[in-house]
Amino acid sequence: MDVANLYDSIGHVCRADGDYDKALECLTKSLSIRLNKLHENHPDVARSYNNIGSVYKTREDNDKALE
């Protein structure tokens, strides 16, 4: 899970820098790893979905954020 956590951290840095495309790329990789290793209802998977939604919210893409 360390790799998923690293992608998550990089995604947060990219978001803070305003590089939303790179943030989404990293956060999506993190989600993919977590879905592969954990069950769908695991809190870390939920956290990944939340992080991705937050990037879309920042980009004011509310439909994608809700998705």
Features:
67 residues, mainly alpha, 4 helices, flat
The percentage of residues in β strands lies in under 5%
Mean pLDDT level: 95
**Could you give the count of β-strands?**
0
- The value of Rg in angstroms is 11 Å
Order of helices and strands: HHHH
Low-confidence stretches: none
Form type: flat
Describe the 3D structure.
This protein has four helices and no strands. The N and C termini lie far apart (25 Å). Helix 1 runs antiparallel to helix 2 (20-37) and helix 2 (20-37) runs antiparallel to helix 3. The protein has helices at 2-16, 20-37, 43-58, 62-66. It has one domain. It has 67 residues and is mainly alpha-helical. The radius of gyration is 11 Å and the shape is flat.
Write the layout of secondary structure elements.
Elements: H1 2-16, H2 20-37, H3 43-58, H4 62-66
In a few lines, what is going on in this structure?
The protein is an all-alpha fold. Helix content is 81%, strand content 0%.
